[in-house]
Amino acid sequence: QVQLVESGGGLVQAGGSLRLSCVGSGRTFSGYNVGWIRQAPGKDRDFVALVSWDGDSTAYADSVRGRFTISRDNAKNTVYLQMNSLKPEDTAIYYCAAGRGFTHSTANYDYWGQGTQVTVSS
Question: How would residue 2 be classed by pLDDT, with cut points 50, 70 and 90?
Fold first, then answer.
């Protein structure tokens, strides 16, 4: 069993930055790939970024590549999402999720956090 808790969301102006954190509990957390997925009002959940269990591999949605960076510190059971050059269209609830596969599909993930709101004003 893995439990995930996100933090770091908030309100920021366009062009600004935020860093999201996802803290995992459970001894097996370091063995999972972890992704960030977001959901804007009235829309489906969309893949944002993914980091492998060892931190060696990452993947990004085209819409955030070059602006967002995902990383993890297994000693702290934490995955980060550094978000720079934020745009109003980045406004969404951001979820972290853990799964065994390395894929963009949201169906891959076995465990989900409760989400953190990110709002980018124009």
Answer: very high
